[in-house]
Amino acid sequence: MDLSRSEAVRREYLDFCRVEKGLAANSLAAYGRDLARLAAFLADRGRLMESARPDDLRAFVDSLYAAEMSGRSVARHLSAVRRFYVYLVERGRLSEDPSADLSSPTQWKSLPKFLTLEEVDRLLEAPDPLTALGRRDRAMLQLLYATGLRVSELIAVERARLNMELGVVRVQGKGDKQRLVPVGKQALGAIEEYLDLGRPALLGRRSSAYLFVTGRGGPMTRQAFWKLLKRYGLEARILKNLTPHVLRHSFATHLLERGADLRSVQMMLGHSDISSTQIYTHVLRERLRSVYDRHHPRSG
Questions:
Q1: pTM
Q2: What is the DSSP letter of 105?
Q3: Pick from 48, 54, 69, 191: most CB atoms within 10 A?
Q4: For residue 17, how many other CB atoms are within 10 A of its CB?
Q5: Active site residue 295
Q6: Side-by-side strand order, sheet with 178-182
Q7: Active-site residue among 47, 122, 271, 287?
């Protein structure tokens, strides 16, 4: 069995993902690890990756569960496997896709946490509006909740990518994919106050391409934003484990509660697959069930 041939095909596929798909280095590394694990599993069964059968791939998924991987990790492996075999079929290496009938795992053992509207209001009011740092922090929190950005996207926003007149921000997401996300009036108001009174005070005579800057004039780090979010969460008396992703979940949940369609939320969040967005429909169902159980006179 020529294992070097399978390795060459994997490298060719990863080069395709890097050049043609524009996948980020972290994603490429994860795909490489996941496919290497599949190759090793198939080699133990006496098969090359190109000769895998559907039952081989089902056994591989079973082995991931047996290793006590989380649903999300299994889903990531499954995504890598599916895309690899779609590639082989498209390039004429295989006539049929052996991964076509693999079922997706449940990615969330527990539903994502989100804030109530009252908690969001308290959080957004926590920063001091009379200081430069407070104005910056309030603008960051407002923009995060208004757009559902990932924290990595938030700290990387450049001043030139925010159009105050149109009320949109151009975001550089995963895999270097860009998207336009609308920004609400309250967030724009907080950002305008920060641009007028906060950012100039922080920069002094320095210049920066980034929208949000530190007292030293540089861009904020992920770790620094996590710390300030934790601090404001405590000041706002929010007892949940507050992370940037909780605000992202809150953004999506509150939009869907008010009638937004799933495709629009998917586009704003930058999800490449709508299955990642569908978790929020489960959030809404669970919330409706809870409201019914609490308030209907014959629910018990």
A1: 0.63
A2: P
A3: 191
A4: 20
A5: no
A6: 162-163, 168-172, 178-182
A7: 271
Decide if 139 contacts 190 (C-beta within 8 A). Answer: yes
150 belongs to the catalytic site: yes
Does the annotation count 245 as an active-site position?
A: yes
| Active-site position among 150, 199, 249, 254 | 150
**Residue in 113, 170, 174, 222 annotated catalytic:** 174
CA distance 86 to 96: 9
206 a catalytic residue: no
Q: How many residues does the chain have?
A: 300
98 within 8 A of 53, measured Cβ to Cβ? yes
**Cβ burial 154-190 (10 Å sphere, 16+ → b, else e):** bbbbeeebbeeeeebbebbbbeeeeeebebeeebbeb
CB proximity list for 277: less than 8 A, separation 6 or greater? 252, 262, 265, 266, 269, 271
Q: Is the pLDDT of residue 62 over 90?
A: no
* Annotated catalytic residue, options 122, 177, 231, 245: 245
pLDDT at 286: 63
User: What's the average model confidence in pLDDT over 89-112?
Assistant: 75
